[in-house]
Amino acid sequence: MTDSMPIFVQIVLAVIASSPGAIALILQIKKNKQEALDEKRRADLEQEKVKTSNTSSSVKNANEVTEAALKLVSSLTSRVDEIEKDMVELRTIVATQSDTIKKQDQTIHDLNCMVRKLSQGVRRLIQQLIDNGLEPCWKPEEDTIL
Which listed site, 14, 25, 57, 117, has its alpha carbon 20 to 30 Å from 3? Predict the structure, then answer.
């Protein structure tokens, strides 16, 4: 029977006969593609949620670190201010003590000069006693002060 039909009719009949199966196959392929696409979108959304979650977690952690750092910087800044005030007071004390030390050094120098002059005067007086024939009861060589 197929031999008596022209080829064109055979093709049309074949197309018509295969159309419901082809349509079902095409629809199944479309459905599979759509399901795969939907699954990929769900996976992408889930991955985006994870990224967003990680990002928000990172942002939260960064905010916590920033807040802790700001508190630390604030307390350290106030401590530095206190130390600077203490340094001003200490510099004043050091300047006063430096002046006192310089004055005391001058006083010690002056007293040393006075002791040398007194020692020379005592030796001279002792020598005058000896030159006048008197025996002194004390001589500076016996004592280490002069």
Answer: 25
